[in-house]
Amino acid sequence: MRLELKGLTKKFGSFTADDDIDLIVEPGQIHAILGENGAGKSTLMNMLYGILEPTSGEILIDDEPVRFRSPGDAIDSGIGMVHQHFKLVGPFSVADNVQLGREHVKGGVLDRKAARKAVLDVSERYGLKLDPDAVCDDLPVGVQQRIEIVKALSGETELLILDEPTAVLTPAEVEELLDIMRNLAKSGMSIIFISHKLKEVKAVADTITVIRRGKVVAEVSPEDSETELASAMVGRAVSLQVDKTPAKPGDVALDIEDLVVYDDRGLAAVDGLNLQVRAGEIVGLAGVEGNGQTELARAVLGTVKADSGKIAMNGTEVTRWSPDRRIDGGLGYIPEDRGRDGLVADFTVAENMVLNQYRNHPYSKNGVVDHAAVVKRAEESIEDFDIRTQGPDESVSSLSGGNQQKVIIAREMSRPRRVMVAAQPTRGVDVGAIEFIHKRLIEERDAETGILLISAELDEILSLSDRVAVIYNGQIVGEVSPDTPREEIGRLMVGHRTADDKTAGEPAGKASGEDAGETADDQADTTGSAGTDDSDPAQGGDREQ
Questions:
Q1: Does residue 132 lie within any of the structural domains?
Q2: Residues 431 and 530 in one domain
Q3: Calpha distance 381→398 (Å, rounded)
Q4: 246 within domain boundaries
Q5: What's the predicted TM-score (pTM) here?
Q6: What is the mean pLDDT of the chain?
Q7: Does residue 275 form part of some domain?
Q8: Residues 294 and 230 in one domain
Q9: CA angle 435, 33, 391 (to 5 degrees)
Q10: Distance from C-alpha of 276 to C-alpha of 317, rounded to nearest angstrom
Q11: What range does the domain containing 15 cover?
């Protein structure tokens, strides 16, 4: 399929999201689109997919003008789309979600056997493991992303749109997806690939279009350097390195002692974990995703119960405190899943800014929320944190993923705090926003906040952290300097303790049944990511990613 966009424009009132966009995607081409959060990329794809109607301009397929009034029209024309924000029905099974809009019917009723077979056929063909009977709400975000991809590939797709498809995938899944994209392109499929991750774009794209503030500003080559691509995206020089002075650690700000947290199946997701974070330092938690990081972060916040052990903040035990009391006591929290745990989609930007403060002065008077004070706070944060929005009263669900993340960052960094848990703080944001968030985290550290950083990006852990703690099977198996060779960190990530441990060279904690020496390089690979658990939640793995 050959796709051409001519002068495509979309306005929302006086706001122009996309302005006179010209674009050509040739058959069998992987055409990457780069741009800041809020640059207009998703709006452009939503017009192409029939979700939004263009204000002006043309869409041509194989040189013939087309008009899409709905996603069904786009699907019928051979276009599939994987959305940045999932379009899944949570209580439905994988098979039910995949067949939505193209239901298998036999004798006037849904043919669930045929639906299951369709899922298995497509997932096997493209190497995306899925259990067709699993309920979507019960699956981690990485597996939900697989469902979206299989759903898009289930029809007679000739052009596939991937809108930030790797934002929630683990490194192994990312590499798998890039291989799938290459194979699809070789078979003649046209692909539009939207991503903030420059390494991925350079690895897979044939050509790159850069959009800034709703306009095409450059056509660049994947041979260009990451620095050149980043500068084209944001319109200025961008530092891809973290600038920081040596930390000056103070007293213990967060003290976790012998912590045990059981998951819903009665397994110890956190298994006797010990960790300290001092004021004025960043402790990075490195590990294969699914080894207790999520449960640890939620236990510190208090949204999951500590089955045993202690948690203290600034010398005061908070193990039995409610989340509200911990927040009022100076805990900041950036959740790994902003859609589920960080924002209320139907609330405005301003309302989301004070989700955990609306009861407090100056946002509440005599038990009544002071809307003017809330809006004033939002206006200040929008400017300070460069949030691309039409205003404080815009629904937060209308923002791009990166700007939603900035709303959370602004909320958590604009109130008194002594301890910060930052879980995947830059997931799904562009290079300019990553630079900004990293700078703010360093400023937090220098203001004597103790920061626990949890990230799947090993580059991020090593560049930001003053100390690195490695987690495996719910235990800390070693603490190392960020200058430690990746190979050594990789061995720790698969369960080998540090050399000064009496069990050095033997897997720590519960046996994993894998050879750590053979997998260490995979876990700390050149993608700069922290790796993924070999167990597959979609196939009965024992860890949630």
A1: yes
A2: yes
A3: 17
A4: no
A5: 0.66
A6: 85
A7: yes
A8: no
A9: 60
A10: 13
A11: 3-234
> Could you say which of 206, 234, 262 is where a domain stops?
234
Query: Tens digits of per-residue pLDDT, 175-201?
Result: 878 888 898 899 889 999 998 788 899
CATH classification of the domain holding 207: 3.40.50.300
Please name which of 201, 232, 211 lies closest in space to residue 5, comparing C-alpha atoms: 211
Q: Tell me the DSSP string of 268-324.
A: EEEEEEEEEEETT-EEEEE--BTSSHHHHHHHHHTSS--SEEEEEETTEE-TT--HH
Structure tokens at 474: 């719910």
Specify if 258 maps to a domain.
yes
- Cα 520 to Cα 178, 189, 240, 490, 531: the distances in Å are 22, 35, 26, 4, 10
Q: How confident is the model at residue 18 (pLDDT cuts 50, 70, 90)?
A: very high
Q: What count of other Cβ atoms lies within 10 Å of the Cβ of residue 501?
A: 13
Same domain for 76 and 182, yes or no, is yes
Give Cβ neighbours of residue 449 (< 8 Å, ≥ 6 apart): 253, 279, 280, 332, 417, 418, 419, 420
Q: How many residues does the chain have?
A: 545
Instruction: Give me 154's structure tokens.
Output: 């289930």
What is the number of domains present in the chain? 3
Q: How far is CA 197 from the centre of its chain?
A: 11
- Separation of alpha carbons 305 and 263, rounded Å: 10
| Residue 30 and residue 181 in contact, taking contact as beta carbons nearer than 8 Å | yes
Q: Are residues 320 and 459 in the same domain?
A: yes
What's the CA gap between 153 and 165, in Å, rounded? 14
Quote the pLDDT of residue 509.
44
Q: How many CB atoms lie within 10 A of CB 243?
A: 10
**One-letter amino acid identity for 240?**
L
